[in-house]
Each structure stands twice: as structure tokens, then as C-alpha cells.
TrEMBL record, chains A, B:
Keyword Transport included in the entry's annotation: no
Domain HTH tetR-type: 14-74
Higher taxonomy: Bacteria, Bacillati, Actinomycetota, Actinomycetes, Streptosporangiales
Organism: Streptosporangium carneum
Keyword Nucleotide-binding: no
A GO term, aspect molecular function: DNA-binding transcription factor activity
PANTHER family (alphabetical): HTH-TYPE TRANSCRIPTIONAL REGULATOR RUTR (PTHR30055), POSSIBLE TRANSCRIPTIONAL REGULATORY PROTEIN (PROBABLY TETR-FAMILY) (PTHR30055:SF209)
DNA-binding region ranges: 37-56
SUPFAM superfamilies referenced in this protein's UniProt entry, alphabetically: Homeodomain-like
InterPro entries: DNA-bd_HTH_TetR-type_CS (IPR023772), Homeodomain-like_sf (IPR009057), HTH-type_TetR-like_transc_reg (IPR050109), HTH_TetR (IPR001647)
Swiss-Prot/TrEMBL keywords: DNA-binding
Protein name according to UniProt: HTH tetR-type domain-containing protein
Length: 188, 188
DNA sequence: CACACAAACGGACTATAGTCCTTTTAGGTC
DNA sequence: GACCTAAAAGGACTATAGTCCGTTTGTGTG
């Protein structure tokens, strides 16, 4: 008996999951994330609407699924990649490296991340990945600012990295100044 | 000829504006901001939907209109009230005072501000008030951190004061720690 | 007061997210 | 291979934001 086995995904479910992800990726690339409705994704994938929502929950969930791989790459690099992003460097250096790397990731998929964060209120804080970034930043902040209340401070700092906000900042000042501002804030 | 006169508001328009604001205030108070639809506001006010949207643009616009007075009070206090919120104190003190005062305002009307900022994407940065807070913070930052690139830095700092974000931070850590985190970030 | 016309009104209409519930099907069991 | 069950499918349905346009009304003018 395989007690902990999470019961394999049914064949039709797997097939449809792939069809949906492929269709969504294609439509988003061709028309832009905001201009594609969930109806359109379902139609393009050749599945019913119920199927789409059942599997991905909402539009944010679909975006998260599409970002999954890229997100994992960054998480891997932080956990076990080379310093200064990975372990081994001083906290301040790692924090600066994280900000740069996160901004690379974010600016590479701005529309998608934005949808994942804003599709429903509070969506950002419910995503599993957010907790990862938050933990990482809190630990580093404890290193760069000994004695500070790192957990809420990490939240406040990550606010500056919200897609909604970075979109506005980059539009107004360009990437270089936006990056510098976040780094300045992070390093005190 | 009164060239610059902005042509007085028509009597029926004024009457309806007041009816809508009163109805919205009542419904929001009774049922909570999120649970009230624009249809319900229109019905309660006894006006058509078209009238509601024509005048306030969207849900965010309605929220802004309701917040208008409180917002003005804070702006007045900053421009000409007593120090340290008003002029006369050192930049660092004024910045701390601004953070506290803004959080007072925000926490007093969290749902409404949140709606004004999140009803449509990018709404926050289109509100006139945002430009005011941004200018104020940028000027103070130039005082506390000579030589910094104050404009984007002010944006990054204000990100931590976004309603969406403060809601999450207060829920998780409570007001006191949330306040302290923002103040820490602001004062470097 | 009658008239003209810009402004405002209002509600039917569209678009879209998300839900519900009935029908279908995969895959294990005898 | 027939049968059973839980999972999955799918599309009609609901709720709501926001648009459009034909109709009404306030107000300044002769």
C-alpha cells in the first residue's frame, strides 16, 4: 500500500492541463495577457470553462502555473546556486543580488506576474512563492540590520517589488533608476 | 464674459451627485465596501447606472469622491499645520510624522482606500492625491538622504503604504509592528 | 413665455469572471 | 469484458463592471 502516494492524475486531466497551458501561453504571447479572456483560453484549448476554472481556480492561478518553472529556477539559484545570489556571501551582498535577480525575473514576465498578483484582492500574499521570497528577505534583513523586526520589514520591502508598483516605477523613471531605488531602500 | 468660469454644475446634476454620495456612504457603512455593487448604489440613490458611471467614472472614482474630505484635511495639515507634520521640523521628523499620519488616515478608511487603489489596474497612480504624497515624501527624502535619487525612492517607499499591502501587513503582525516597519524603512 | 441646445439622464446592452450541476469517462475490481 | 465509483468534463447560468445611445431636462436667450 502506498499510503502517501497522492493518487496519480487521471489521463484526461493531464491531457487537458497541458492543452490549457499551451493555449494560454500562445494566446498571451500573441495578444497580450490583459486582452485574453478565460473564455478565449478555454475555447483555444478546446475544453469547457468549468474545466479551466476547476483546475486553475482563477486567472491568477493560471498565471502562477505558467510562471512556475521560471520561479523555481530563481528559487533554486537562491537555495543552492553560486554566491552572491546563493549562499556564501554576506547578507548585504545577497540582498542586493536578490533584488537584481528578482527584478530580472519580474521584468521578464511583468504582465504575467502582475496578473498573478492583482487578479483578485490579496492574491499576491496567498501565492506560495511569496512566502519563499518573504522568508529569504527576512533572514537577510536580520543579517544586515541586527535587532530589527525582520518579518514585517521584509513585507514592507517586498511591497516595492510588487508588479503593480514596479510597472509604474519603470514607466516613469526607467529600469536603471527603479532598480537603484529598490536597492537603496533595501540596503538602508 | 467670464472666460475661465467652469460653467456651473446643473441643478439636477448636483442633486444626483449628493444623492449618490449619501447612498454610497450609507450602503458601504451598512454592508461593507466590497459587498456593495454599483447597481445597488444606483438603485439606493434612485438614479440610473449611466448617471453613476458618467459622474464618477468607475468604482475607484466613487471611493475617491467619498475620501475627498479626509484626504484634504491631511494635505492641509502637511502644508500648513503644526510641526512636525507641518512645516518647521527636521526632514526625518517630518517623514516619521507623515508615515504615522498617513497610516492613521489609511487605517481609518482601509476598505475605501483599498477600493480606490485596486478597482482598476494602475488606479493608485492616477489619483491626484498620490502625486501629492509622492512630492511630499520625495522632498523629505532629499533632506534625510542628501544625494539620493529621491523621486523613484519616494515611489518605492510609498509602495509600503499601499492599502493592499498595509492590509496584509496589519493582518499578519498588527498595527504596531506594521507601523514600525514602515518607519524603519523610511528612515533608513 | 417659447425656444434651442447642451448637458444630463437612465436603462438596455455587452463583456467577462466565476459557479453549479448534470453528464461522461478513466481506471480499478471481480 | 462488465461494472462501479470517484474524478473530471463542460456548458448553461449568475453576478457585476462598464458602455451606448435615444430621451428628458435645465438654463440662457429673444
Amino acid at each position: 500500500m502506498l499510503l502517501d502516494e497522492p493518487r496519480r492524475e487521471r489521463a484526461d486531466a493531464a491531457r487537458n492541463r497541458l492543452k490549457v497551458l499551451a493555449a494560454a501561453a500562445r494566446l498571451f504571447r500573441e495578444k497580450g495577457v490583459d486582452a485574453v479572456s478565460m473564455d478565449a483560453v478555454a475555447a483555444e484549448a478546446g475544453v469547457g470553462k468549468g474545466t479551466l476554472f476547476r483546475r486553475f481556480g482563477d486567472k491568477a492561478g493560471l498565471a502562477v502555473a505558467l510562471l512556475d518553472e521560471r520561479e523555481r529556477e530563481l528559487q533554486e539559484a537562491i537555495l543552492s546556486g553560486p554566491a552572491p545570489l546563493g549562499p556564501g556571501a554576506q547578507a548585504a551582498e545577497r540582498l542586493a543580488a536578490f533584488v537584481e535577480a528578482y527584478l530580472d525575473y519580474l521584468l521578464g514576465h511583468l504582465d504575467l506576474v502582475r496578473m498573478s498578483e492583482t487578479a483578485s484582492p490579496g492574491a499576491r500574499y496567498r501565492i506560495g512563492a511569496y512566502r519563499f521570497w518573504h522568508r529569504h528577505v527576512a533572514i537577510l534583513l536580520a543579517g544586515t540590520r541586527p535587532g530589527c523586526d525582520a518579518d514585517p520589514l521584509a513585507h514592507a520591502l517586498l511591497a516595492a517589488l510588487a508588479a503593480e508598483h514596479v510597472t509604474a516605477m519603470v514607466a516613469e523613471y526607467g529600469e536603471a533608476r527603479a532598480r537603484r531605488a529598490v536597492r537603496t531602500l533595501a540596503l538602508g
